[in-house]
Amino acid sequence: MLLTGGLLSGACTETTGPPAETHPEASVDGTPHRLVWAAPAHERTFTVTVQREAADGEESVTFVLDALAAERNAVRFWAVRGVTHRLRIDYRHGDGATGRFLALRLPSEALVRRPDGSPLATGDSVLIQVGIDRTVLGVRLEPVGLPINARAPVTLRLWYGGAKRDLNGDGRVDQADAEIRRQLRLEGSEESRRRSPEERGVDGELILFGGHAISW
């Protein structure tokens, strides 16, 4: 059964991703270097799938987010305590290239408190927003600072197949870029794991919401 507005609260909203940098792949001030999208924002669309699993069955909804072209690049959904939620986002570039970008999983007991710290009872919900950055391969999860149950952490995986091949922005695709791929991590995660070169992704566990990007 397709989910109605009880799961989604508006498919899109205004830009909320991590602040874009002019040359994020060439940072020199000690901040993390971040991977940059290969295609410009106006040539990207996303397919979003939201699923939830409860005792009474599984529900899902899929839609296309013409996000960055219209400066609306976020998806919002209601996360209910006692229900497992999964979010998947795939990208499509103007040249036809496609691939996976994001997989987010909220276990049924991940959310135990509201953003203000008050207890969240089973069956109560929190509005979650996932904002996609216009420039770098990253997202901003809101409410920022939302506490996550350490015994049931949220897992986030980002793929970098849609990034520029010249990772360090020096104008060449060479061994230096291959070395960077071995150093990639998920910024803002407790435990970051780099997937195999074939999978081209990184993942980690979250116990707080905020800005999360593929960086080194």
What is the topological layout?
Blueprint: E1 44-54, E2 57-65, E3 74-80, E4 84-93, E5 98-106, E6 125-132, E7 138-142, E8 154-159, H1 175-181, E9 185-186, E10 191-194, E11 201-206, E12 211-215
Antiparallel strand pairs: 1-2, 1-4, 3-6, 4-5, 5-8, 6-7, 7-12, 8-11, 9-12, 10-11
- How many separate domains make up the residues? 1
How many DSSP E strands? 12
Sheet of most strands:
7 strands, antiparallel
What coarse outline follows from CA principal-axis ratios? globular
| Strand percent estimate | 35-45%
Give the quaternary arrangement of the chains.
single chain
- From the N-terminal CA to the C-terminal CA, the straight-line distance is 41 Å
Strand order of the largest sheet: 2-1-4-5-8-11-10
Percent of residues in helices comes to under 10%
Class from secondary-structure proportions: mainly beta
Radius of gyration: 17 Å
Task: Characterise the protein shown here.
The protein is mainly beta. It has one domain (31-215). Helix content is 3%, strand content 38%. It has 1 helix and 12 strands. The protein has one helix at 175-181; strands at 44-54, 57-65, 74-80, 84-93, 98-106, 125-132, 138-142, 154-159, 185-186, 191-194, 201-206, 211-215. A 7-stranded antiparallel beta sheet has the order 2-1-4-5-8-11-10, with no helix packed on it. A 5-stranded antiparallel beta sheet has the order 3-6-7-12-9, with no helix packed on it. Strand 6 (125-132) and strand 7 form a beta hairpin. The longest helix is centred in the last third of the chain and has 7 residues, at 175-181.
